[in-house]
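Reproducibility note. Readers wishing to regenerate the assembly model reported in the main text can use the exact inputs given here. Chain order matters: entities are listed in the order in which they were concatenated for prediction.
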Amino acid sequence: MAGAGLWDWLRGYVIIRIEGRAPARFVNMAAAYRIELADVTMLGPGMMLVRTSVDGFRRLGPVLRASGCRAAIEERVGAAFIVARLLRRRFLVLGAVLFLAVLYGSSSVLWTIEVVGAEPPERAQILQVLQGMGVRRWTMRHRVDCDAIRREVTRSLLQLAWVGVELRGTMLTVRVVPKVAPEVPEGPVDIAASADAVITRLILLAGDAVAREGDTVVRGQIIVRGRAGPGAGDRPVHARALVQGRVWRAGQARIPLTIEQRLRTGRTADQYVLRLAGAELHLGRTGRFEAYDTEQFSKTLVPGRDGGSLVEVIRIRRHELSVELIQLSREQAYAAARDCALSTAMSDVPAEARVVMISEEVSDQSLMPDAVDVRIVIETLEEIGVQQVQQLR
Amino acid sequence: MDIALNMPRMNFEGNARLVLDNHRGLVEYTPSHLQIDTPAGQIDITGKRLRIRGISRDQIVADGWFDRVEFSGWVGNATAGSAGQEAP
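Running the prediction on these inputs yields the following structure tokens for the assembly.
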């Protein structure tokens, strides 16, 4: 009985104007006839607006006659009237139904089958397996059983380690990961040194050791030969051994006590170069800075046939630099040189190596008054044996 | 219970809304005056922007700005002689 709600809107209602000598009598009689009226608004003497349902309006005839009032529809509101209007436009309804049918139909079939992670021959095999299962383009989506496809592809292609099947929308995606066999070198394999080192421990598992603990070896030198040994027929084998060695790596850096510092002042100058089939047109200003660095951005407007640019715009931005000479103390120069030398030496140290000792040598001030030279030596214990295919002799 | 005794039941929400059960119809209705008949007597409401939000056989919902509510012609025992009467 309150304002028009969703249910009233769905069923549809009419707003009618009642005119007559006794509109109150009309309202009372409508209530007596169980016709619900709402939003009864007086417009003036003998005239009002009321809202009622479609069914209520149909039953108003006797009430109007008995009360001596006239009714005129002011407005028809609600879904029922919209549907009725639409139903009168048959082709519109037909088009809408057809559109929904095509939309539903086209979203119920497979549009794309994608195979990810497979080489072309495997891809063809997978598609063949899918075809064998009746899964191809335009197959109905409800006929696609992802679990069954995954099982069948895994069973049919033994070279695959993992298969995943996903149906999303109208696209079927088959993701595969092929098996990767460990690389086993063919023929006999030696163990060689990966760096210049002193062997600290050697545990022989297979092969014939040609070096011993305490020996100094150079990079690439054979430590264990890939043969069974004198007592076992001297046949070729894959040498296996754990070889640990002490390795020294050095890094050196020299920092002068007077250095040049170049900083951007913030002033820039842009120059544009229009390059057209080899010819160049320079626009803009160069800035005429005494010292500067440049940044360059290019944009191809018309690409050429060879993959290059037929028409290209290049922006050259020059940044003005202020150049200052800075005097460092020996301590500052030493710290900078040490950091630099240490990072150089550490750059070659493997992650699994254990650093045993770091030693450093600093240049003498009397010998080198204008700079500080630092040499860092890092001593590590690490695995130095690497497999190496035996060279034919 | 009130309807069984044929008594009107009024529910005011402030001076802005009235829900009246068990009425016998409108006597007068203008934007400034609303007179409703009930089995116990008449209710006169004067105010501004008075409006019938809904009316059915048993209930009237009115809103607006109520300045004054008066009860006229009410009898001591409202149930006597009024039970079973229909709205006009």
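We highlight two features of this model. Residues 78-88 of chain B have pLDDT under 50 and may be disordered. DSSP finds no helices and six strands in chain B.
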